[in-house]
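User: Before I run my own analysis I want an independent prediction to cross-check against. Here's the chain; please return only the structure tokens and, at the end, one sentence I can use as a sanity check.
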Amino acid sequence: MATITGSVGRNGLNRPSDVKIVQGLLNQHMTMLIPFLPLPVTGNCDAATILRIGEFQKRVMKIMMPDERVDPGGATLRDLSKSSNTAPVGEPILEGNTLPAPAAKVLKEILKAAGLPRATVTSVSRTPADQARVMYDNCVSKGVAFNKNMYAAAGDKVVDVYAANKTSPRDTVIALMLAKLLEVGPEKVSKHISDTHYTFDVAPSSIPAGKQPGFLTAIKAHKAVSKVIPPPTDPAFHIEIPKNSPYL
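Assistant: Structure tokens:
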């Protein structure tokens, strides 16, 4: 496990040498934090560094109320220091967020068909609050037009709330987006909130560029998959699988 001499992040000591270590570790896990980009390793614990610590705690560690801080010898530092998962020889490795067994089986079959040894799952099922937060972050990083192109009419209404309130504090805007999401119906906005589908995203950065066309072909060819939205329409390979599919 990596070693730091003091806490890094919100209300941390934030010694530059420690901050550089944490920034480097976060960058090693950036495929799990799409659409965020790698951090400049400056030793300055800025808002972007604190935000990514919190996102790592939410997405990877499943902490509902992250403290946005990395402590010496703590759980966040331990998980940031983890190396890749292991798997039986010939068995594709799934990194990132954990998939339900049926969805993991399908993704591994797709990877085998495409001749790929591994992939990183960046997003799985979400609560409405998670969805509002993700939509906010995507609006900030990708812009309103990109997100309106990605979502249907119900999602566009949530994006419109961001556009109308984007100068307000982050938490305020997310709360307003969540209220609109609940008003229009969560499942109408995203299948990530669905009770009827396994929905997940695969990081494009985890699939070599030359292999991505074959990966997309293998996704479309798998009979259990009902929908795929590939980049650049979606930031990731977005895959939906009905839970009642006879091909699971």
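Sanity check: The radius of gyration is 19 Å.
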